[in-house]
Amino acid sequence: MICAVRRLALIINPVAGGGRPARALPDVLAALRTRGLEHRFEYTKSLEHARELALEAAANGEVAVAFGGDGLIGAVAGALKHSDGVVGVLPGGRGNDLCRALGIPRRPVAACAILASGVERRLDLGDAGGRTFAGIASCGFDSVVNQIANETRGVRGSPVYALALLRALPRWESAHFEVTFDDGRARGFTGYSVAAANSKQFGGGMLLAPDASLTDGLLDVVIIEDMPKLRFLRLAPTVFSGRHVRQRGVDVLRGREVHISASESFVLYADGEAIAELPVTVRVLPGAVRMIVPA
To answer: What is the pLDDT of residues 185-198, one digit of tens each?
Structure first.
């Protein structure tokens, strides 16, 4: 439904995206005033602090607006899952992949229009070992790439992931993975990675799971098997169009819950954050959060 009046509590990560939210805040506040939206804001000290602020906003009858990266959105949405709390989004991170998937403008001031005129929809979330995420949880080669990307300074958006991939690939050695679904299906393989996708994309626009939906109650589990590094490097650019899923060595399976283990002690990353260690069970939480999206 469309809300006639919305009161907003902006939860801001001031260092996301190289400080983008802090720089954009004056213009965002002006845009909210122009649209007649009652608002206040607080800076986060950590993701746990962001969860506390989200719960406080919901208790006050306010929309908890995550103004930062995908990790902040996942934390705020996770705090309000299975409740009447409402989540709003203003893009301020490096990749802003959930905004891309939802059609929310990637300029914060433009995205204020969605907070004013958007509709509330119930969206799925993912859960990995008790940690909630909104987008894609992945491990294996992706674990190494995410770690390098998070340690890289001075590069923004999808280029940081491309740079991290080039740095990680020469030292990469394929691992063995086991994936088991709650309906009994099992798959073992040697290769690069496993990803459990609630949304279509990650890494600043990479369509890793082009057919994934935020409302279907399923995870798209993307498996990338072993292949020569040169072929993998040639395959990588096709992720931006989603054409990689038609290539040999890439499979997509669907399910509500998947258990992932590996021969190496990988960390599972989701929404740009390290959220669990393998082995781990990842499951979908259907319709878990109310979020303001474009009408």
So the answer is: 999 999 999 999 99
